[in-house]
Design goal:
Elements (H helix, E strand, L loop, with lengths): L1 E3 L12 E6 L5 E6 L8 E8 L25 E9 L6 E6 L5 E6 L3 E11 L7 E12 L5 E6 L5 E6 L4 E5 L4 E6 L6 E6 L5 E6 L4 E6 L7 E7 L1 E6 L10 H8 L2 H7 L2 E6 L15 E2 L5 E9 L9 E8 L8 E5 L4 E6 L4 E2 L12 E2 L1 E6 L3 E5 L7 E4 L6 E8 L10 E7 L4 E6 L15 H7 L48 E4 L3
Antiparallel strand pairs: 1-32, 2-3, 3-4, 4-5, 6-7, 7-8, 8-9, 10-11, 11-12, 12-13, 14-15, 15-16, 16-17, 18-19, 20-21, 21-22, 22-23, 24-27, 25-26, 27-28, 28-29, 29-33, 30-31, 31-32
C-alpha cells in the first residue's frame, strides 16, 4: 500500500474539494468544489503512470521533504477538461454504476444529469470531441442538495436535501417518483440498496429512516423503520447481557422480570446531531452485494450504561435492520463517509469473517482526520492513515481495473478534503486479496456484477448473515497529532504522515 499526495491545484487556488468519484473500473475521475474565479466547479482528470520515475520510487511514509513530493509520485493526475455550465459549487458528484451517466448536485436545488457524447469544446468554436456534459436537470427540492445515490441499473436516483426531504427520481423520464418527508432536520445522506429493496436516509435530527420497496409492479417505497437508539440489558455488575431476542423482548415488557433477574434496561441514542457534528454530509453505503450497510456519524458508550461516549460507525445486516450487528469505533474524530470497494474478494479457508458470506468485502471509512480501511475478515482495520490533511475529509472513492481483468488488478482509493488536496492510496495486485470475477460469484448475486437490470435480481443475497451479538472491537490509544484547524497556504501536506497496517 502506497500513499501519495500530489501537489495540484485541483479546484482553483487550493479551494475546498467537496466530492470525488471514479468512472467505474477506470482511472478517470471527477472532482467538484469551490473555484476562486467561479469558472470550473467540476473538473475531469485521469491518473496516469509517472514515466519520469523508476517503479521503485514512491512517496515515503514519513516524508519530511514535501517540496520533492511530485518528483516521487508513482501516479500523476492529468487534467482533461472542466465544465463552466454549473451555477454554483456542487456538494456531490457521482458516476452511475454502469458508467453511462453522472450526477452533480449542490448549492442550487437541482440535480444535473450528465452523459458522455460528442460536444463542442467551446461555445462559438467548431471543434468537437467526446466529453461529459449536462443533458438533463431534475427539479423538486426547495434548497440545496447534500447527497445522491444511484440504483444499480442507473434508472433511478435518490437525492437528499437540507429542505429535510429526500426524493426518488426516474432518471430516464426526469420525473419525481416519491418524496420522503419523515425527517425533522437536514437530510445529509442517502443510499440505495443494490437490490433496490431499501432506501436509507440519514439526517441531522439524529435518526436514520429505512424505506422498503413494496415489490409491486409500480415503484413505491414505504416507511419501515426508524434507527435512532440502541436498547439492551445490563446485569447488576454493569455488563451487557446476551440473550435471545425472544427472551429480551419478554424482559423488556416485564418490570417484574427485570427486578427478579436484577437487569436494567438501557436506551442509548446512536447518532450525532448538528451541534456535535458540523459536517455537511453523512455518507453511508451498502456493500456491493447488498448484504449489509454501514452508517457513519454514530456514538456509543464503551461502558454500558455510563456517560462516557465515543465516535463510531454502525453496521446492519439486511435481514435485521432493527439493531446493529457490529460497531466500528473511531478513536479520535467523527466518521463521516463510508465507501465500499466495488468488487468482492476470495474467502480463504483460514478466514473467519464477522459476516458469514462466501466472499470478502472491503470498505473504507473517513473520519474528519483519518482513513480506516477494513475487510470483513476482521473488525479491526486492515490499515489506518492519518496526518494527511489540514482540514476535514469530505469524500472517498474506489476503483479497480477493467472488469475483464479484475482478477489481475490492484485497487485505488482516493480521499478529498476541504484543504484543497487529494490523497491517493494505491494497493498492489493481490494486496487486499484475490478479486472475484462475475463467473466466480454465487449465482443469485452474480447479475449485480454483470451489470444486468434490476428485474433479473433475486431479492436476497446468498449466505447466512446473522450476527448473534453486537461486537465492539477495542482500539489502542494513539499518539496525539498536531491540532491544525485550517489549511496553511504554503504547506504541501502535514508533516509525518502516519500509515499503520494491521493495528491491534
Amino acid at each position: 500500500m502506497k500513499v501519495e499526495i500530489p501537489q495540484v491545484h485541483w479546484q482553483g487556488d487550493r479551494e475546498s474539494i467537496f466530492s470525488i468519484d471514479f468512472l467505474p473500473f477506470t482511472n478517470f475521475f471527477v472532482t467538484c468544489g469551490y473555484d476562486n474565479d467561479e469558472s470550473m466547479f467540476i473538473r475531469f482528470w485521469q491518473w496516469e503512470k509517472n514515466d519520469q520515475i523508476s517503479e521503485g520510487e514512491r512517496i515515503k511514509e514519513n516524508s519530511k521533504e514535501p517540496d520533492n513530493v511530485n518528483s516521487t509520485l508513482t501516479w500523476k493526475p492529468v487534467f482533461k477538461y472542466g465544465d463552466r455550465s454549473q451555477n454554483g459549487a456542487p456538494n456531490v458528484v457521482k458516476f452511475s454504476p454502469l458508467g453511462n451517466k453522472m450526477v452533480s448536485a449542490g448549492v442550487q436545488d437541482i440535480a444535473s444529469i450528465w452523459d458522455y457524447k460528442l460536444r463542442y469544446v467551446e461555445m462559438g468554436k467548431t471543434e468537437m470531441e467526446h466529453r461529459w456534459g449536462v443533458c438533463k436537470t431534475l427539479r423538486g427540492h426547495f434548497s440545496e442538495i447534500s447527497d445522491v445515490s444511484w440504483s444499480r441499473d442507473e434508472k433511478y436516483l435518490a437525492t437528499g436535501s437540507i429542505d429535510n426531504t429526500a426524493i426518488l427520481w426516474n432518471v430516464e423520464k426526469g420525473v419525481q417518483l416519491q418524496r420522503f418527508e419523515q425527517h425533522k432536520n437536514y437530510v445529509s445522506g442517502v443510499t440505495i440498496d443494490p437490490l433496490f429493496n431499501y432506501i436509507i436516509t440519514q439526517s441531522n435530527d439524529k435518526t436514520v429512516k429505512v424505506h422498503k420497496n413494496t415489490e409491486s409492479k409500480s415503484i413505491k417505497f414505504y416507511y419501515k423503520n426508524n434507527i435512532y437508539k440502541r436498547k439492551y440489558l445490563i446485569d447488576e455488575e454493569g455488563k451487557q447481557v446476551s440473550l435471545s431476542k425472544e427472551e429480551e423482548d419478554e424482559i423488556y415488557d416485564s418490570k417484574a422480570m427485570q427486578d427478579e433477574k436484577q437487569y436494567k434496561v438501557v436506551n442509548e441514542r446512536m447518532f450525532l446531531d448538528d451541534t456535535e457534528c458540523f459536517s455537511f454530509s453523512r455518507r453511508a453505503d451498502f456493500s456491493p452485494d447488498g448484504s449489509f450497510f454501514i452508517l457513519p456519524c454514530g456514538i456509543y458508550h464503551p461502558v454500558p450504561g455510563e456517560k462516557e461516549k465515543k465516535y463510531a460507525s454502525y453496521g446492519f445486516i439486511r435481514n435485521n435492520i432493527s439493531e446493529p450487528a457490529f460497531i466500528l469505533p473511531s478513536p479520535s474524530t467523527t466518521p463521516l463517509v463510508v465507501r465500499f470497494h466495488p468488487a468482492l474478494f476470495e474467502r480463504k479457508e483460514e478466514d473467519t469473517p464477522f459476516i458469514d458470506l462466501p466472499y470478502i468485502s472491503v470498505f473504507a471509512i473517513a473520519t474528519m482526520e483519518d482513513i480506516f480501511i477494513y475487510t470483513t475478515r476482521s473488525l479491526y482495520p486492515y490499515a489506518s492513515i492519518s496526518n494527511i490533511h489540514y482540514a476535514e475529509l469530505t469524500d472517498l472513492a474506489w476503483t479497480t481495473r477493467e472488469h475483464q481483468d479484475i482478477e489481475k488488478s490492484g485497487s485505488k482509493l482516493m480521499a478529498c478534503s476541504r484543504d484543497g488536496f487529494i490523497t491517493l492510496v494505491d494497493f498492489d495486485e493481490g494486496e487486499l486479496g484475490t478479486q472475484l470475477t462475475q463467473t466466480q460469484l454465487p449465482e443469485n448475486i452474480s447479475s449485480l456484477f454483470d451489470y444486468l437490470t434490476i428485474d433479473s435480481l433475486t431479492s436476497e443475497p446468498v449466505g447466512e448473515t446473522e450476527v448473534k451479538e453486537v461486537i465492539i472491537p477495542k482500539f489502542k490509544s494513539r499518539k496525539s497529532k498536531p491540532q491544525v484547524t485550517e489549511a496553511i497556504p504554503d504547506a504541501k501536506h502535514p508533516e509525518e504522515m502516519k500509515i499503520e497496517t494491521n493495528p491491534k
